[in-house]
Amino acid sequence: MQTPAEYRAQAEQCVRQAEHAKTSKHRSILLHMAQTWVRMADEAEALNRAEADLDPMGHFGPGASGVAHSGAEGLSDRPSE
Hints:
- It is a single chain.
- With 81 residues, the chain is mainly α.
- The protein has a domain at 4-52.
- The protein is built from two helices and no strands.
- The protein has helices spanning 4-19, 24-52.
- α1 (4-19) packs antiparallel against α2.
- The termini are far apart.
């Protein structure tokens, strides 16, 4: 996977090429490609932010303790001892 900066560089290249396109169809295609590269950069940044929110154990969100939980706490019919 490329970095967001690399995706944005691809978008910039498409825009530069679109400025010199010989036909409106070619220009339109290049500008659409640039939009796609920007969208990919945005998604890569969002993924990077989400990964930064994971603690070392792979738990997501604030308050992640790094302790693995089964997710079944509090589901037992038996009282805790």
